[in-house]
């Protein structure tokens, strides 16, 4: 009888142990949920955008899988600050001031190149002051333009890249302000002709990945993985492909 009881306890203990191990493994394999509001070519619904591929490769190198959620900009950031999701990209530095639960992964993904698009490629626009006297448009909510664009003949704030480039194509504005790669992607996808990005950027800003504060411990590993990936030929090939 004692032997049977002992055997029964052993089976119960073994079962509990296996359940715990199974639960632990399942938890360890849960994907890291990362949100983004970026558009092509930086992020696509099939996760084949430039940022998407950088993120996926960085996490793969430290043995983690990623689930990318595509959602509106404000909710994307709020979900991470509130701990609903694990991370968010791609954002400028300094967001922890207004989002106290965010922690920056302090190795930039890429530079965002804020660029003037024009119909006249001979137009001289090298800095913000060169916008003076011109008819200008940009997408509403782009804070850098709202801050820096001054003394223009007129300013149109639009809701989409479609509206932005339609204004430029129609001649209603002289300059459309946008991000270089996103603008080039849109021009190519819509087969627009006679629109050009000027060579001199108005500003270049690094764009970053952020985590919820509960993942602060793994930030150094992610920073190092991203840094290492950026030093490989595969990274440069990826950049060139876009």
Tell me about this structure.
It is a single chain. This protein has about 240 residues and is of the alpha/beta class. The chain has two domains: about 30-110 and about 205-240, Periplasmic binding protein-like II (D-Maltodextrin-Binding Protein, domain 2, 3-Layer(aba) Sandwich); about 115-205, 3-Layer(aba) Sandwich (D-Maltodextrin-Binding Protein, domain 2). The protein is about 40% helix and about 25% strand. The chain is built from eight helices and nine strands. It has helices at about 1-30, 50-60, 75-80, 145-150, 160-170, 180-190, 220-230, 235-240; strands at about 30-35, 65-70, 85-90, 100-120, 135-140, 155-160, 175-180, 195, 205-210. Strands 1, 2, 3, 4, 5, 6, 7, 8 and 9 form a nine-stranded mixed β-sheet that branches. It is globular, with a radius of gyration of 24 Å. Residues about 10-30 have low confidence and may be disordered.
Mean pLDDT: 88
The value of Rg in angstroms is: 24 Å
Number of DSSP strands?
Answer: 9
Helix share, percent = 25-40%
Strand content: 15-25%
Look up the CATH topology of the largest domain.
D-Maltodextrin-Binding Protein, domain 2
The largest sheet is: 9 strands, mixed
* The level-1 CATH class of the largest domain: Alpha Beta
What is the count of distinct domains?
2
Alpha-beta classification: alpha/beta
């Amino acid at each position: 009888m004692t032997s049977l009881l002992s055997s029964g306890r052993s089976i119960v203990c073994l079962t509990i142990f296996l359940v715990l191990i199974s639960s632990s493994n399942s938890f360890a394999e849960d994907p890291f949920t990362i949100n983004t509001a970026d558009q092509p070519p930086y992020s696509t619904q099939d996760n084949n955008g430039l940022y998407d591929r950088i993120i996926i490769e960085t996490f793969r190198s430290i043995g983690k899988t990623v689930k990318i959620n595509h959602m509106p900009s404000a909710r994307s950031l709020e979900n991470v600050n509130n701990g609903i999701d694990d991370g968010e990209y791609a954002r400028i530095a300094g967001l922890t001031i207004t989002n106290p639960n965010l922690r920056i992964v302090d190795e930039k993904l890429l530079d965002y190149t804020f660029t003037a698009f024009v119909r006249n490629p001979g137009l001289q626009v090298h800095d913000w002051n060169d916008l003076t006297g011109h008819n200008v448009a940009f997408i509403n909510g782009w804070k850098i333009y709202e801050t820096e664009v001054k003394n223009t003949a007129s300013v149109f704030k639009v809701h989409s890249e479609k509206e932005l480039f339609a204004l430029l194509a129609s001649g209603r504005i002289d300059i459309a302000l946008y991000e270089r790669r996103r603008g080039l992607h849109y021009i190519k996808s819509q087969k627009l002709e006679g629109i050009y990005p000027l060579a001199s950027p108005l500003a270049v800003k690094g764009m970053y990945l952020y985590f919820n504060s509960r993942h602060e411990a793994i930030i150094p590993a992610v920073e190092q993985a991203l840094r290492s990936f950026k030093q490989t030929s595969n990274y440069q090939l990826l950049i060139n492909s876009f």
